[in-house]
Prior knowledge:
Blueprint: H1 2-9, H2 14-34, H3 50-56, E1 66-70, E2 73-77, E3 80-81, E4 85-86, E5 89-91, E6 100-101, H4 103-119, E7 125-127, E8 150-154, H5 165-170, H6 191-202, E9 206-211, H7 213-225, E10 235-237, E11 244-249, H8 272-281, H9 311-317, H10 348-353
Parallel strand pairs: 5-7, 9-10
Antiparallel strand pairs: 1-2, 3-6, 4-5, 8-11, 9-11
Helix pairs in contact: 7-8
The protein binds zinc ion (ZN).
Amino acid sequence: MRLISLLCALSVAAGASVALKAQEGEADLTKTAAAKKPVKKKPIKRGPEARQLFGAAKTPAPMAARAIGFYAKGCLAGAAALPIDGPAWQAMRLSRNRNWGHPKLVALVEKLALEAKEKDGWPGLLVGDLSQPRGGPMLTGHASHQVGLDADIWLTPMPDRRLSEREREDLSATSMLAADQVSVDPNVWTDAHVRLLKRAASYGGVERIFVHPAIKKALCEADAKDTEAPWTRKIRAYWGHHYHFHVRIACPEGSGNCEAQQPLAADDGCGDELTRWLALVKPKPQPVTPTPPAKPRPAKPGLTLDQLPADCRTVLSSGTDAPVVAAKPPVAVKAPPAAAKAPPAAPKKASAAK
Ligand SMILES: [Zn+2]
């Protein structure tokens, strides 16, 4: 179970990381310009850690449904719960309280479960994490899953009985990997897995599906033999994701502050991209003399509430069950850049009258 959250922790998700890099890139440019002057480092004042606040929210924000911000930096208003039991699914790891999503995502998971059972010979979905009741960063696992548009679905078929709460905590998912780590294990990987993933990719609302490179390879091979139109483009290789696949839907209508990810690459990801991924995940030969353990890197500080979109403050404080949010710290006044012309001072009385 821990393995699964760790795997998903890696799933900043390809698209997410690209967009984040773009944001970081912009920040770096300003750093270069400012780097000429030696600046005395002041201790950085950090607001409250967003993951503590969002992790404490037990109920959704009673607001209209809205995904706010980016998949890896945002929150969710008006979340819907995926019922823990359905005619073709069971939610797992109930203690985490992460069966919440944008209503569009919840509807999509339910539809996939029903259709895969009816048409693909898939006995039902075991559903892992969606989002927290108000989205946002989490105390453990996942960099994404913050805006209610990401869902993890196990590659283990659902058993034909209702699992107890205890079993839903303890049951381990099955890895699809063969011993070589670059192909799927034919003892566990089946044509029904292919049909399930093909169906998930067929839905218009689904923008990306992340799977392990070995699974992507199996799907590319299946797609090549398929007489229907190619369908693997949305399914992209990524780290982890050999116990579950990760479905991501696009920003829904009515979510004006939802930030889209980079558009999908034009190719199907079965060529050079897959070759590179397989080389990355192929186990490296062990050195004869063991290398000394690497120095542990200092933990990266989590996102603060101030780093999330401003509307996430409202999402947190909305309703009677809202977790207590500390008052907003005073905003530090930034000096205008030297080159910028100072705006003319507004008459004091006029601005006070507004
Ligand atoms: Zn995930």
